[in-house]
Amino acid sequence: MTTSETAPDTAPETTSETVPGTAPGGSGPTTPPTQDARTAGARVADGALLVDVRSARGRAATGDIPGATLADRDDLDALFGPADAPAISLDTPVVVVCGSIDGSGPVAAALRARGFTDVTHVDGGFPAWRDAGLPATAPSDGPAAGA
User: 42, 90, 95, 103: most buried by Cβ count inside 10 Å?
Assistant: First the structure.
């Protein structure tokens, strides 16, 4: 089929990597790629900044990642500085982890939109990280934790 034979009402395919409100085909910010936990762990071992954006309650319920930098996903300025004056180099490798990609994806996209060039997030989130045998602590919210 030639270009002239393409149906005019055919919409471009949207992938899971397209951020709502941006055009497909690279004309806007996209969600950075996910990586399996082992690959993400290797990136961290090679010096990437591991950013855990789970809530304190989420970390208590499932466990922590030793050495991870904790960030409030609703206040990225606290860790990364304002978008117009970043606190760390924009080419710093960053790996984002949450409870799932539903939490890490938007943060990774926000970092990409701020100009960070090397951002990924963990496919399967913290459960995949832990299940891959990567460093993680046990949950801390036993029956007495809420008392």
Answer: 95
